[in-house]
Amino acid sequence: MRSRLDREGVGWAAHALRRLEMPPDEVRAVLAADDAVLVHRYIELHGERLEERLADQRQTLMHLERLLTEAIRPAPEATSSGSTESIWSSEHWVGS
Questions:
Q1: Which member of 24, 63, 76, 86 has the greatest number of CB atoms within 10 A?
Q2: Using CA atoms, how far apart are residues 43 and 1, in angstroms rounded to an integer?
């Protein structure tokens, strides 16, 4: 791999992989690899980790939003149809 990648390219790749929080031992392995399949496997593995982390973060955000919005909106009032569903108006929560 090094034969076709100049020093600047290797530096950029190392920086990008660290910024993506790839473990240091894997960064070293990727940069030292002469096997494209091995490089692909490391990149693919880390991509899967990033996707899992993003899914976890999105789930946490959903829980936070629910917790925080339920804490500030008033209890829903029953309507003539018996519905207690609430919707967001530009100023506050209102019963629908």
A1: 86
A2: 15
